[in-house]
Structure formats: C-alpha cells, structure tokens
Amino acid sequence: MCGICGIIHMDDRPASPAELRRMLELIRHRGPDDEGSFIDRNAGLGNVRLSIIDLTPAGRQPMCSPDGRYCLVYNGEIYNYLELKEALQSKHTFQTWTDTEVVLKAFLEWGPDCLHRFNGMFALAFYDRLSRELFIARDRFGIKPFYYCSGADGSFRFASEARALLPYLRDRRPNRQAVSEYLLFNRTDQGEETFFEGVRKLPHGACGMLRQGKLEIRRWYRLADSLKEPFRDPAEFYDAFRVSVGLHLRSDVPVGVCLSGGLDSSSIVSVLLREYNLADLHTFSAVYEKGAPADESRYIDEYRPHLQHMYVTRPTAGSLEADLDRFLACQAEPVATLGPYAQFKVMELAREHVKVTLDGQGADETLAGYHYFFGSYFKQLFTRFHWGRLLGEASAYLFKYHSLYALQYFTLYLAPARIKSALGRLAHDYLERDFYRESVGCSRLTRSLYNPRDLNDSLLQHFEHKLEHLLKWEDHNSMCFSLESRVPFLDPNLVERLLSLPAEKLIRRATTKQILREAMTGVLPEPIRTRPDKVGFAVPWDQWFRSPAFQERIRAMLHSDKFRDRGFLDPRRCLRDYERHLSGRTRIAREIWKWLNLEWWFEHFIDDQGQGRT
Fold first, then answer.
1. Count of beta carbons in the 10 Å neighbourhood of residue 25
2. 295, 288 in Cβ contact below 8 A?
3. What is the pTM of this model?
4. Cα angle value 365/367/370 (rounded, 5°)
5. Which helix H or strand E contains 121, and what residues bound it?
6. What is the DSSP letter of 604?
7. What percent of the chain shows pLDDT beyond 90?
8. N or C: which end of the chain has fewer CB within 10 A?
9. Residue 207 annotated in active site
10. Burial 513-549, CB ≥16 within 10 A → b, else e
C-alpha cells in the first residue's frame, strides 16, 4: 500500500524534483516507511511506501524493469501475486519478494492484459522511457483511488489523493454538479468528476494511455459483461468466501478486523477463527451508550469468549467537534453521512496495534443488504406479474420491520420522472429554487440509481454509481493513519457469481443476504446470523447535533453571510428545519450534516485555496 504521484510536461520542460517532493509531502501519511522518485527528462514519478509485503528496501518504488525501459509506481495489493509469480518464473528472474515486482514483470510479459489476471486492489502507472508514453490503470471496483488533472501549463499530473493536485489548479472552483448531487441525492463519486473543477478520477475498471499529449481512456473491465455462473448452493459460496478471506491475509505485518457487530464483518471474524485458527486476532469496534440506536456492543460481545484482543472506541459529539477539521481534511471532499467518522475513529484505534485491517465493505452491494433493495425486488415481482409472491414479501416486510421504507422505494421506482422530481423538491425545499431547477435538470442519478429494472439491475447500478464513495471514504480514513484496509467481499471471484444469483437467493421472507446467512449456519453466532437490522458504522448524530457545541456552530453557520451568498441553500428554511430538529419534531441529521460539511469544505478548500490543513 502506498501513495503515488506523477508529472508529465507535454512541452518537454524538465520535470522538477522539487515539485515531485511537494506532491509527495501532501500524501506522506499514505506511506511513512519509505519514499522514492524517478525523473527522466519531462517525466517524474513518485511514491511513498507503507511496507506490507517484503519489508526490506528492495520493495522501494518507483521500480524499473531490468533494461531500464519501464518504470512503475503502484498503490495497492495483488493478493494472488504468489500464483502469478510462479507462472512468470520460467521467463523472468525475481530480485524481491514483493508483489510490486510481480506487477512489473506481469506487465512486461502480458502488457495491459495483465490487469485481467490480477486479483486485488490497485492504482498504477507505467512509464515507457523509450516511447515516452504513460499507461495508467485502476482496479475493477475502484478500491484504490487515482486522481488526475491536465494543467493550463500543458502538464499532466496524477496522485492517490486530490489534495496533491490542488496547488496546480489555476483557478480553484467548486464543481456545481457534484455539489447538487451531494445535496439532492446524498451521493458522491458516482462518475469521473470530483468536487474540484478540473480534477478528475480514472474510472474504476478503466485504463488509459497518455501519448503525444493526449489521454485515451477505455474500460478494461465491466462487471455486467463479466458475470459468471451463480453459486449452486450456500456451501459453494462459503468455500469461495473462505478462500477470499485467506488470500486477504497475505501480509508480512499484523492483520486485524474492523468489527462492527454486523453480519458482514462478523462473518470475516468467524471464518478467521474457524478456518485459520486466528485466536490471537485483533478486532476494532465503535460503541456507544447501551441502548443507543447506533450501539452494536451486544453483538460485538458475542466474540469475547473467543478473542483476547478486542478494542473499542467511543465516538461522541465532543470527539467529533474536536476531530472535525482533521476528519474532513483527510477526506478532502464532502462526505454524505457521518458513518465514516465512526470508521475514522476505528482506524485511529487500529493503528496502535496493526498495519492491515479487513472489513465487510462491499457485502451490501453484492448481497442486497440495504433495505431499499427490497423496493427493487418488489418492482421485479410486480413487473413480472408475480403478484402473489409480492403480496407475501411485502406483508412479511411490514410484519418484521413495522416500516414503510421498502414500499416507499417500490412506489418511487414505479413513479414517472415528473413525480420523482416533484417529490425531490418537497424533500429539499431548503435548497435555493434556482439552484434546484439547475440541478435536477442535469442530474444522471434519477436514471442510473432510481430506475432499476429488477434486483440484479439495481445491484449492478450500485457497483457502477454508488459503491465507490464508500471505498474512497475507507481508503482516505485508513491511509490517514497509515493503515491498509482490505475488503474480502470484493474478490471478483465472489462478486461475479453473486450478482448472477436469482433474486430469491438474496432476499426471501423479508430477509436480506440469504445465501450468506445460510452459508454461515453453525459458523456465525446465531444472534448475529439471524439479526434483521442493519447498522454498520453508524453514529447517534440526531442527538449530537442537539448538543450545545453543535447548536452554537450550526446557528453561527446558518446566520453567516458566506453561507447565504453561496447560492445553494436557503438559510431561513434551513434554520426553520434545524429548530424543528432541536425540538424533536423531526430528525434531519443527514441534512444538517451536509450543510455543515459543505460549508466547511468551501471555507477550507475553496475560499482560502488551502489544503484543508489546520
């Protein structure tokens, strides 16, 4: 795991070592163990290293081919590197035990087709000193980030974090489309654009070639075109999951688990205990007061008889107030929920004990874990005239959860576009009217996320347009504390077969993740295996935003001239809604957080043209 960056001057100006050092300094937290740079005429590549596999200086990057023609910088892990190394050894000699050298030799042997052989997470760049071309690529699902910008000075720059590129933007401006989709749909990172006008992301599953000043990008992987035969039964799924967890253990440093108490992270812990006998496993959790809606300590405690190294952190309104600048600076772009703050605190705790963590990210997207997927399933049953089963599933949902949430999504998915637009206006009447009209007309999200044909289509849409923001938050949270975070549920050997499953293998009798629950029978503690609710890394933000410190902060923000003059939010309506929240008449913590986070981002990254540092 590392941080990478690079510069290519199209006008053949020499690349500046000082400029490369400046970029590396802005991402040094990603790799405090080592650093390296490479300069060749107009090209420069840089790396800061977090040593995970082969801890010796032999793993230093940039790493060059034996003949010196190709130079590689790479961020991530290729979990099947040992198998790839064995396949390459008949033609290539290896000098290190790193997966970086395997990536390099795989490119020399197979060219860009090597990407299809990698099972892992990666963002990488190969520079060809002879042709003076740069090849860049990113993993299938966007686990590792890759940002780039093309400057007015005729330069191409890339980095693992947007912050490293900001000094090179001539005029730093907000991306209004990103702001609108954040406020309207609680979404970020659903496309190639960022919140910074001029900074873009290489799409997940994409590669590109920078040749003669022109960047050509293509998709090397599309999940919809890569689906395999579905798992025959829970036993076959369990075996594949066990193998994935084992691959994600490959490391020369200690590995722990971020344990939320939910089904996904608990499944990882239970497999580690049963299949790999890791009784000395370290786990890290966020807990709250007993009985708080976000507290999952009773499920986490199911492992206390089996584990000796369980650590907890207790986020509070006070800790958020103290951490706010550091947390939001590390993310560099607005965050749509406060769940990542709980993850931030868990990562802060974990760094004292391990260097690698595993967690359950991606399971909700592969196994239909979010409750709005019930709405997709209900639409599927309705449009295929399975009305008897629809009635049975909807009744079971109402009986089990005493909620209309799934039915609301069901009706939303069936509604005409004009009705969806009207509902959006009612739900966001605190937006300035002109900004709302501008935003809703150009958004792609009503088509890409709110109009699925069926459950499987909804899952594919989420992989294309939603999962990536969760992965970015996790990457930035973990790397802020120099930790590598790994996600076993996103092994392509799992994903490509899970998304082929019939819907009833995922949702049945108002229960999500059906195949996982059946596969974990006798492995997972029964109270966790059968729990119907989903919390994840949640926080009790409704209460937090009623605390005196946040009341003072939020009221000051809503009365400020800067907030009013942004032109996005109507301060009077926001203040009205906040007063209702304080009185307990409504709960709008998510909206309050978005106002607060967006204003903080403007003040620290746009108004003062800074790096978000405090």
1. 13
2. yes
3. 0.95
4. 60
5. strand 120-128
6. I
7. 86
8. C
9. no
10. bbbbbbbbeebbbeebbebeebbbbbbbbbbbbbeee
**Tokens, residue 363:** 């399971």
581/575 Cα distance (integer angstroms): 10
- Phi, psi of 562, rounded to the nearest 5 degrees: -60, -45
Q: Is the pLDDT of residue 611 over 70?
A: no
Q: What is the C-alpha separation between 611 and 27, in angstroms, rounded?
A: 11
Whole-number mean pLDDT of the chain? 93
Long-range interactions of 444-453: CB distance < 8 A, separation 24+: 444/190, 444/191, 445/181, 445/184, 445/185, 445/187, 445/190, 446/417, 446/420, 446/421, 448/190, 449/185, 449/187, 449/190, 450/412, 450/413, 450/420, 451/413, 452/376, 452/379, 452/413, 453/380, 453/383
Nearest to 192 by CA among 146, 224, 154, 159: 146
Q: What is the Cα–Cα distance from 560 to 607, expressed in whole angstroms?
A: 14
For residue 267, give both structure tokens.
């499944």
Does the structure show a pLDDT above 90 at 276?
A: yes
| Position 429 confidence tier, pLDDT thresholds 50, 70, 90 | confident
Question: Could you tell me the two tokens for 403?
Answer: 């909620």
pLDDT band at 476 (very low <50, low <70, confident <90, very high): very high
The active-site residue, picked from 2, 5, 71, 330, is 2
90: helix, strand or coil: coil
pLDDT tens across 373-422, in order?
999 999 999 999 999 999 999 999 999 999 999 999 999 888 887 676 66
417's CB contacts (< 8 A; 6+ apart) are 446
Q: Answer for the pair 431, 183: CB distance below 8 angstroms, yes or no.
A: yes
Distances (CA, A) of 103 to 74, 112, 113, 126, 135: 8, 11, 12, 10, 13
For residue 120 the two structure tokens come to: 């892992």
Provide the 3-class DSSP secondary structure of residue 606: helix
Window from 120-129, 179-188, 203-212, 416-425 with minimum mean pLDDT = 416-425
Residues 6+ apart with CB under 8 A from 106: 84, 88, 114, 117, 118
Q: What are phi and psi of 77, to 5 degrees?
A: -145, 135
DSSP for 34-81, please give it.
Answer: EEEEEEETTEEEEEEE---SS-SGGG-SSEE-TTSSEEEEEEEEETTH
How many residues are recorded in the chain? 614
C-alpha to C-alpha distance for 88 and 68, rounded to whole angstroms:
19
356-358 and 484-486 beta bridge pairing: parallel
